[in-house]
Specification:
The chain is of the alpha+beta class. The chain has 6 helices and 5 strands, in the order E-E-H-E-E-E-H-H-H-H-H. The protein is globular and about 55 Å long. Bound molecules: FE2/S2 (inorganic) cluster (2 copies).
Amino acid sequence: MEHSSQVRLNVNGESHVLDLDNRTTLLDALREHLHLNGTKKGCDHGQCGACTVMVGGERINSCLSLAVMHHGDEVVTIEGLGEPGNLHPMQAAFIKHDGFQCGYCTPGQICSSVAVLEEIKANIPSHVTSDLTTPVQLTADEVRERMSGNICRCGAYANIIDAISDVGGVRA
Ligand code: FES
Ligand code: FES
């Protein structure tokens, strides 16, 4: 039985073909094989959100997903969102609102934040959406609920919500 596979990943607009042990997580493929170290390994168990990336426009915990499951997929990491001198509006907002201290959770927070605004725009309800008959409202409660899988040990939560609210246009 084969224990490795050739996996084609499109990461931040660039196509890569990797020979990977079938047990390699997407997180390890990004960090260890493509050397994209912006995506962080916090718990490696799906509990902290530090490893959040976007696949096909939706956020996932990359530590919980095998790379072989993403053959042919489009992946966006924090490096693909923006870079110094050309920041994504969410990256700029995290700086403006001081949405971090140590910064370890920040790439995951930012990838999650970008996807959260898209989820709300796409009218995908969350646990706190009370009225399913009208479009989902962009409220601070919706954002808080949807960001609850992204843990920040520095406790920068209030400023993170301010940053997302600023980009998304949530009223204070
Ligand atoms: Fe993936 Fe914590 S490292 S959820
Ligand atoms: Fe330190 Fe979030 S900024 S863990």
